[in-house]
Structure formats: structure tokens, C-alpha cells
Amino acid sequence: MSVPGNPQSNVALVKKPAWLRKKIGFSAVGALKGELRQKHLHTVCESAKCPNIGECFSHGTATFLILGNACTRTCAFCAVDKGATAMPDPHEPENVAAMSARLNLRHVVITSVTRDDLPDGGALHYVRTVEAVRAKLPGAVVELLIPDFDGNTAALDAVLSIRPEILNHNVETVPSLYPRVRPQADFARSLDVLRRAAGCGIIAKSGMMAGLGETDDELVNAMERLKDTGVKIFTLGQYLAPSRRHAPVVEYKEEAWFENMARAARSIGIEKVMAGPFVRSSYLAEKAGAL
């Protein structure tokens, strides 16, 4: 059975195993969603349909999604809306800071949609948001999960100049799958983002998804290349297709497979590895960042 409405692949649909389902605590999710909407804030937890949203929201944690909730890229794996974008909300930095203080976060994770329509890709908005968070929570660890800024080194340098404690940029998948999965991205360009962050003495972090059709050898090779850039934290999780319009899941990996891949990553020399079916780049970020 081919995937309806998905011209990118004729891969047969693979049934999602029952064990790969996670309950959502709707009361906790609804309560925090209400507060976020009051401050006109978005989270990647909601926009990317993260399976861990119930767990994280019930613990009073969330990953803020700045620069709107519409992305200018058409990655085949991502549930975030594509389409018309708006100018960055000038109140968003203060609202992120206020919400971070309200939740008493010790580890603040901020990401964004990719905004190739903006001259600096939204870099200045990142800077203002970090400054606002640090003013409200001077003791908090700030982790940024950034796009590649379309290769704009001045934009990247602006973000690096505010020295987040952790700079995350996900390569997402192996290079051979980029034309199908991340057509507007470039693996080498993503490696350069991480290399520049590590070269500034900032903890570099990256993440990948499994089950899109990559081979184990390709994945290990990608992890080796990440290690060579200076990446110290690596996350690996199971890809879950948000809908039939997205890239299909080629294979669901067992827990034992993730454990083997985690051992491989550690043997390569990556200091901190989190791997498992439900692992996402911002999942348990405070724990992952405790190097």
C-alpha cells in the first residue's frame, strides 16, 4: 500500500506497534496550553505533535517555539505548519521570559521555526529572547535549538555571541535521505553550525531520527561526523509520521536496537547519549545537559 498524497515514496505503510503509544494527560496539557495562549506563545511540543507532551506538560516544562508557528521549509518529516509567516512578535522575548519564570525553569529550551524569509533568519529575535530570559532567570541554563540560518554566518555568529550554555542543531537524518526528507537543508552546512558552536567553547548538541530508511552503517557514519565537529550531546529517537501526507515510517526500531546505537555513539566518543523510541531532542533536556 503506497502512501496517499505522498509522491515522495512508494514505501508500504508499516503498522505502528502497540507498545509505541503514549498516553496524554489532557488535564495537564490543557492547563498549560491555556497559560501559553494567554501570552501568545507557541511550543514545539504542540506544533510538532511530540508524543511526550503529556509527560512534560504535567511536570511544568515545555520547549518554546519562537518566530511564529509557520515554517518556510517543507521538510517531509515535520508536523509544524508550513505557509504564510508573520513578522516576529516584539513582545515574544518578554513573554517567553515571563513564562519561564512562572514555571520556575532551571533549564530553558528555546527553538524556532525556520525563517528563510527574514534577512537574518530571526537571529536577532533569538538574542533578544535569551537576554530577556537571563534578566528574569539569571541562574537558568539556556539551551537553543536553532536552524542553520541558510548558511548566514553573521546570523549564526550573532546567536553564538550571546553564549547559550547549550547550542543544539539537529541533523535529523543521514545525508542520503536529505533530498527526500530535508530538501532545503544541507548536511555539511549543518555540521558547520555545530563545528562553529563547539569552536566557541559552547556545548554542541545534535539529534537524529531512526526509521526513515537509513542503514545502521549510515547512522554510525553520521554519528562519527558529528563527533568530529565537537558534538558532546547526542539524541536518537524513533521517527513517527505525523500524518499520511508526511514521509512514511520505513521501520520501527526495538528498544534493544537503540541501546546498541547508544553504545556505538559512546564508543565513538560522544560524551552524553540519549537514545530510545520516545527520545526527542528537547526531551529531558535538563538531564541530557548535565554533563
Write out key terms for the chains shown.
single chain; 291 residues; alpha/beta; TIM Barrel; 2 domains; eight-stranded mixed sheet; two-stranded parallel sheet; 11 helices; 10 strands; disordered N terminus
How would you sum up this structure, described in words?
It is a single chain. α5 links the parallel β5 and β6 (141-145). The chain has 291 residues and is an alpha/beta fold. α4 (92-102) runs parallel beside α5. The strands form two sheets. An eight-stranded mixed sheet has the order 1-2-5-6-7-8-9-10. It has a two-stranded parallel ribbon with strand order 3-4. It contains eleven helices and ten strands. The protein folds into two domains: 23-141, no CATH class; 165-291, Aldolase class I (TIM Barrel, Alpha-Beta Barrel).
Strand runs, count: 10
What's the helix count? 11
- Portion in beta strands: 15-25%
- Tally of separate domains: 2
Give the SSE string.
Answer: HEHHEEEHEHEHEHHEHEHEH
Write the SSE topology:
Layout: H1 26-38, E1 42-43, H2 44-47, H3 53-58, E2 63-66, E3 70-71, E4 81-82, H4 92-102, E5 107-112, H5 123-136, E6 141-145, H6 153-161, E7 166-168, H7 178-181, H8 187-199, E8 203-210, H9 216-229, E9 231-238, H10 255-268, E10 272-275, H11 285-288
Parallel strand pairs: 2-5, 3-4, 5-6, 6-7, 7-8, 8-9, 9-10
Antiparallel strand pairs: 1-2
Helix pairs in contact: 4-5, 5-6, 8-9, 9-10
Gist?
The chain is α/β, with parallel strands linked by helices and about 290 residues long. The protein contains eleven helices and ten strands. α5 links the parallel β5 and β6 (about 140-145).
